[in-house]
């Protein structure tokens, strides 16, 4: 026996095979004509674009690999100099400040109220 979900009774009900395989109004056939075009101008096909590849800029990966893979004893997160040091120290200061603020707020919340 075949079953389908009844939207009216919210239960499974017995049914014939054709409605069980295409539930809730879905049609098993594929439309024979192509859908209408949505945009005013057609999009560019991949075959029309050619083999040329356009990059957003110069490839800096080899330069960055030389910087990050050099063994000069500096941690990776500080290899690029002043901007990295500034970002690292700002992050550490905000982390420590936030932790202290949480501890102060916890201490204030733990104190009983005076009446």
Tell the overall outline: flat
Beta fraction of the residues? 5-15%
The H-and-E topology, N to C, reads as EEHHHH
Estimated structural class: mainly alpha
Strand order of the largest sheet: 1-2
Structure commentary:
- With 115 residues, the protein is mainly alpha-helical.
- The protein is built from four helices and two strands, in the order ββαααα.
- It has helices spanning 17-21, 46-49, 61-69, 82-110; strands at 2-6, 11-15.
- Strands 1-2 form a two-stranded antiparallel ribbon.
- The longest helix has 29 residues, at 82-110.
- The model has no long low-confidence stretch (mean pLDDT 80).
Compact description:
With 115 residues, the protein is mainly alpha-helical.
Q: How are the SSEs placed, and which strands pair?
A:
Blueprint: E1 2-6, E2 11-15, H1 17-21, H2 46-49, H3 61-69, H4 82-110
Antiparallel strand pairs: 1-2
Labels describing this entry:
115 residues, mainly alpha, two-stranded antiparallel sheet, 9% strand, flat
């Amino acid at each position: 026996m075949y079953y389908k979900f009844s939207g009216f009774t919210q239960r499974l009900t017995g049914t014939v095979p054709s409605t069980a395989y295409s539930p809730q109004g879905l049609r098993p056939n594929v439309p024979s004509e192509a859908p209408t075009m949505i945009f005013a101008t057609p999009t560019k096909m991949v075959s029309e674009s050619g083999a040329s590849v356009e990059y957003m800029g110069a490839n800096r990966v080899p330069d960055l690999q030389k910087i990050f893979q050099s063994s000069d004893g500096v941690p990776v997160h500080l290899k690029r100099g002043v901007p990295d040091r500034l970002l690292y120290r700002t992050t550490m200061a905000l982390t420590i400040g936030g932790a202290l603020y949480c501890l102060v707020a916890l201490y204030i919340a733990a104190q009983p109220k005076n009446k």
